[in-house]
Amino acid sequence: MATVIHLRAETKPLEHRSCLTPTTAKALVEAGYDVRVERSPQSIFDDKEFEDAGIPLVPTGSWRDAPSDHVIVGLKELPEDNFDLIHEHIQFAHVFKQQTGYRETLARYKNCLYDLEFLNDENGRRVAAFGYYAGFAGAALALEIWSWQATHPNGEGYPAVKPYPNEAALISHVKGSIAAAKEANGGKEPRVVIIGALGRCGSGSVDLCRKVGLGAESILEWDMAETAKGGPFEEITQSDIFINCIYLMGKIPPFVTRDSINADKNRKLRLICDVACDPNSPFNPVPVYDIWTTFEKPTVDVTGIESGPPVSVISIDHLPTLLPRESSESFSGQLLPSLKALKDRQTARVWADAKKLFEEKKAELE
Ligand SMILES: NC(=O)c1ccc[n+]([C@@H]2O[C@H](COP(=O)([O-])OP(=O)(O)OC[C@H]3O[C@@H](n4cnc5c(N)ncnc54)[C@H](O)[C@@H]3O)[C@@H](O)[C@H]2O)c1
């Protein structure tokens, strides 16, 4: 009997991404799986796209009544409730690091929770992550808002952001905004410094900057070698935009501070996009703000700036949502080889390790 994979419809508000796409669902069917997809009013993929790929549709929310041996696949948290979860679930649950409410949520999983954040390859690296499109979207928003600042010198705030139907629409929009900004400020192209440029998020940021047409001299690509001298860095206050994409692993000297901003009398910096966004970490290398921003209100101003124009920070922790189609396609494609091993999950290392982790976390509850 084929292993049944049941894609549940996302219920988290504004979540348009999907763990399976018509392309990856079809690939799983071709690999011998029985895939069913719930009708979803909020997915970026129309029901018809799955239907056209030959995938049977099932009612929204029907996973609850599915036979107990069906594997339930989703992306984000389930809505709060208290009924027992009897299936094996594959999703991000945000409960393994003792996040708020983790006890009650984790206790509901009676079978197995394979948490997508902890599915690792043999080198301990995530098998699937959204990083590339987080960096891509973060750089797009940064350029967009920098351009807005240039064309709205009276300080009018940037309006709420909505997801884009696809990458081409986003790029065309950002290109138009940069062109308008250049016209308003005498043809000046923004200089962008990206730290963590060799990583997943960082490479996404670099690619976006290239795709919207910034010249190589306008994109500073920094990683470990460049920050080894220790911050704060004048190269940041001398750039128009700073994008932080590092994976923070411990205490490091800050990259930029209020003092370093105030000390640079010829400061160019107007905008920081903190893709890594660890405002609650004592080691935050961008200690100039302390909240997460949202698509509704994408920036927060750095306080304590003594002279010159304000410096704004974007600290959105769900940036890939800006491009739900491409980010889902990328994530699901990375996950596909592991999903193809699901029928052998008792022995396949990636799933066996994830199950072991779940059992350890459950044991810690007792
Ligand atoms: N805001 C969002 O929506 C969003 C989405 C996905 C990931 N993230 C976060 O982005 C961060 C990066 O994720 P990733 O997948 O790109 O990680 P990654 O491991 O692929 O890349 C991190 C890069 O940072 C570099 N780096 C680490 N410390 C550095 C330092 N001190 N100086 C210079 N470079 C340094 C590494 O060499 C590496 O190239 C993570 O914290 C992740 O949680 C945010």
From TrEMBL:
Pathway(s) where this gene product acts: Amino-acid biosynthesis; L-lysine biosynthesis via AAA pathway; L-lysine from L-alpha-aminoadipate (fungal route): step 3/3
GO CC terms, sorted: cytoplasm
Active site residues of this protein: K76 (proton acceptor), H94 (proton donor)
UniProt KW Amino-acid biosynthesis keyword: yes
S-S bridge residues: C201-C245
Claim: Amino-acid biosynthesis is one of the keywords in the record: yes
InterPro entries with a match to the protein in the record: AASS, AlaDH/PNT_N, AlaDH/PNT_NAD(H)-bd, Lys1, NAD(P)-bd_dom_sf
Family: Belongs to the AlaDH/PNT family.
Organism whose genome encodes this protein: Drechslerella stenobrocha 248
Protein name (database record): Saccharopine dehydrogenase [NAD(+), L-lysine-forming]
Binding site for NAD(+): R125, G199, R200, D223, T227, Y247, V275, I316, D317, H318, L319
